[in-house]
Amino acid sequence: MLAGMAYDTELADRIRFLIGTGPGVTEKQMFGGLAFLIDGKMAISASGQGGALVRVNPADGDALLATGTATLAVMGGRTMRGWLRVSSEDLEADEQLTGWIKRAVGYARSLPPKR
Predict the structure, then answer these.
(1) Which residues of 63-73 are buried (b: 16+ CB within 10 A; e: fewer)?
(2) Which residues lie closer than 8 Å to 61 by C-beta, 6 or more apart?
(3) Whole-number pLDDT of residue 5
């Protein structure tokens, strides 16, 4: 990560507004970005590398990648199944961002509770 590179605070504000203050919604600084968690499970993050990091059902990953608006997330040199990176350009419209938030929150809520 480049020194001084920070997440997009405007994107973080938009996520905060669109994700709302439902039950179990929390924020946490993680991986140089600002993550939004549902019941302690990360759903979406304003990434320190730009754009958003979105958690999705790994079974849906290939279909979502085929849309061309997302790439597989790579962390520490490893590709992360179930994590997609969406560029800021593909999140400019609230409809675009809302779609990713709904998918990420829905998947996070479907996961078993953290012990």
Answers:
(1) ebeeeebbeeb
(2) 72, 81, 82, 84
(3) 58
Residue that has been written with the tokens 């996520």 in this structure: 15
What is the mean pLDDT of the segment spanning 73-101? Answer: 93
What secondary structure, in 3-state letters, does the chain show? Answer: CCCCCCCCHHHHHHHHHHHCCCCCEEEEEECCEEEEEECCEEEEEECCCCCEEEECCHHHHHHHHHCCCEEEEEECCEEEEEEEEECHHHHCCHHHHHHHHHHHHHHHHHCCCCC
Report the alpha-carbon distance of residue 115 to residue 105 in Å, rounded: 19
pTM: 0.90
User: Which is nearest to 54 in space by CA: 91, 26, 92?
Assistant: 91
* 29 token code pair: 């600084």
